[in-house]
Structures are given as C-alpha cells and as structure tokens.
Amino acid sequence: MTESTGRRERKKAQTRQSLADAALELFLERGYDQVGVKDIADRADVSVTTLFKHFSGKEALVFDQEDDQEAGLVAAVRDRPPGRTIPQALREHLLLAQTRFAVQAADPRFGDFQRMVRDTPALSDYSHRMWMRHEAALAGAIAEAVGAPADDIGCAALARFALESRTLIQRHAEPRRAADEAFALLEHGWAAAHPDS
What we know:
Layout: H1 2-30, H2 37-44, H3 48-54, H4 58-62, H5 66-78, H6 86-104, H7 108-119, H8 121-132, H9 135-146, H10 153-171, H11 175-193
C-alpha cells in the first residue's frame, strides 16, 4: 500500500511539474495573455480537468511554490536562534530569499519571466495577493512566539509590514541596504512594544 501511495504521489508531482514547465514555456513563447489553459494541458499531454486538479487557474501555474514560502516564513519566526528578535529573523529570511532570487536570475529565462510578471497586470496583482495571503499565518506565528492573543494588532502589523517590505528589497539596487533600513524601522517600533522578543 505504501509503495503504491508513494508512486501515486510521485506521479502527481511529475504531472504538476510538467504542467508548470509547459505553462512557462508557452507563456515565454507567446505571452501570457495569448495562452489558454487548453494550450497548456495539450502541451503537457493531459486533460484540462487534470490541469484544474493541480492548479486553481492560469495564474497559479506561474506561481507554484506558495506553500513552501509560507512554511519558510513561519519557520523563520518559530525556529529563530536565541537572542535574535522576530524582525531580525524576518529580515534574514527575506535576504536569504533575495539571494535565492539572484541565483534564479542566472537562468536565461528568468529575466523574461520577471518581465512577463511585471508587465502583465493580472500576474503582478496575483503575485502580490499570493504573497500577502501569508499574512495571517505569519501574524499567528508572531503572536504565538510572544504569547499574544491570536488577533493581536501589533503582531498583524509586523507581519504585514515585513511582507510588504519584500517589494522594496527586490526593487532596490542594494537589497541588503534596503532590508537594513526597512527592518530598522520595524525593529525599533517592535522593541518599544515587545522589548523581550
């Protein structure tokens, strides 16, 4: 039973990856707005029904690693070393993500992908919404870490401001300096409200 479950999971993962790869190829070849879900399903040699079992829509095919991002943000708070504040941990996490972002940029298709996302309003809006949907989980992890109520406004504000800072960091010519300045503002305000965290 476990072997067939493992095989089934591998097959699902392969299909998902095949769909994501087909979508990226088509989007870069033709442009996002010129590609339909049927085109992607045909390229991946699956049915449209199968595509929708793996992805909620066309935009989701572009951004297929959202769950990993949320887990990473929560872990940055929960697993931070002793003595590291929550804003410091989030700053380090975003800078590490920025480093991975720079490594991906070495792929020749990455610049085209970034331009496509930036120049397609539906994709840039979707990307921002997908990133900001991690706010509740991050706020919950922060509240748990400091022993605050789950609906604590200070924890929610820190989560929102930390997530919003990603755009500033990515767009800045000096990402580390941008992160340092943005999180210095968060750190000082946070320290006033929660001096021991």
